[in-house]
């Protein structure tokens, strides 16, 4: 073991949460050292990886990011569960996708930024289910504003199109992106036939102008798996700026143990390099922000005599309450062309269906029509028809124009039985793989039975679907939440309202793991808001120290 | 100095360098690249492009054709005989377009090859499988059928916020 380095603050993880916290600390004058398990790569390399994938893999979010042996991440299943990185068990598969590269999973996120509503944060008070947040929406609002200006989030200026439907305290920094013809048509049909308002997505994508030294979106329709021009925010775009401000960023550095000392303060993080050599990094404060799977894994791996159940785990809640947005995606074949694929891959959604008194009985759902260009999904289906020549050309064109994917994304309640533990199955470094038991639960299943799927079928009918393919099971949304849950009671929560670990005064765990409710919208903007809040608390604490 | 292990005029050092180069060629360029280079310009390559021209009614990219043909030469042991058979059927029909002779290709190996060639040109890949070989991305014909309205993902179609163009009709299919 070698003593590699030291800093005021050591941050494990260079994804969006770690990057946001790091920049606040650097701007406040603290030294920062960041560790990432995976490699640091160029955008051009990822774009070439994508372009060189066979057509059958072009829809894969992760295949453009081959994992390094020392930093495995979930990939399309090999068919042998033991070979998979995530060891899954339970009625539903927590089959998530995330990237262990410097820059983290915002490399391949869609950029969607739905804020929570005030009601989303009071599920227990209002509906008697789930958990309330430790603070209200008004407390979170200024941090949402910071997130929107930091990431560069565009959104509508018309209050009737904003989410949540209440006055904003600050306008979006950029106007919302225009709809494609298909989205215009979907919006019109939903309003005229079902009364729903399909609103523009607030999204971390430059709209009509450069922002943050990045260019405007030019409709490359490749936000997932990678924006080829950097118009979409991803954390990798911030790494050079952080280094210019003095951050030290170590890639290919796999954190495998957190060391505690007197007073149960965190003393150091130990990491392994690709030669399997261990290094020790010390600091005054520590932030672990490597997503709601890798963070609890590291905490559990670091059990010691002071913390026999793992770091930050006196409540026994580390790794529990694993959440996501369980989704049901319908593929519709329509009479008329919608011509998806112009603009970003997710550009609008129906959010009003996520709210209501029904939440006492079942989950809400948000509906969206994905805007991915359809050739990649329909070419092989067209080829299977056996047509050739002009008939084949027309079949591909018709399927590309007239098929759509409508998704119902559900909320889920925190359930301590949905739990990450350490598998006996080891990775290349000999570290345990994550084992995750997962059941979406009756609250979400009931929504699918009596609420979301009936709405989805009405949407299909309103769009003139001639064929509807319904999914047989919930799929996952890659929105990792809950595993280091926030609360006001240290007996049943891992972190306090500032994402500070109850068990360790100098350890912060901001991000999706802290979220006690999911609502239906994508989680990243809330994770970033929590990162700003945690950074503020950390800076205040460090200055007082 | 010559030894019994070397040919006249070729030193042991040259042999080692040559062997290392050849090994490097296969190691770093990959066997597919090697097949492609060996296939390039051969009579079989030319006949494969002739077959492709009969099966596909569109302009065909030479580079993509080279990679598809080289792969086919590895995949189909009797590629040359099969090409002769299919081309002969087309000539018997006096065909210049695929619709004029495709139904005359007998079910079995010949029909399978013909359809594999068509699928390779349209998908740019050797199959729908995750481990398929990629022959071309942007020249895959599937994208040409919708290029008037749908971008090839990762290649931009418009300028900033300028993608709200009028919907295109389903027909006619663009010429390509």
TrEMBL record, chain A:
Residues 66-75 have a biased composition (Pro residues). Its cofactor is FAD. Keywords: FAD, Flavoprotein, Oxidoreductase. SUPFAM superfamilies: FAD-linked reductases, C-terminal domain, FAD/NAD(P)-binding domain. Residues 414-531 form the Glucose-methanol-choline oxidoreductase C-terminal domain. Residues 201-326 form the Glucose-methanol-choline oxidoreductase N-terminal domain. Residues 60-79 are annotated as: Disordered. Pfam families: GMC_oxred_C, GMC_oxred_N. PANTHER family: PYRANOSE 2-OXIDASE. Belongs to the GMC oxidoreductase family. This is GMC family oxidoreductase. It comes from Halomonas dongshanensis.
Automatic annotation (TrEMBL), chain B:
InterPro entries: FAD-SLDH_ssu, TAT_signal. PROSITE patterns: TAT. This is Sorbitol dehydrogenase family protein. It comes from Halomonas dongshanensis.
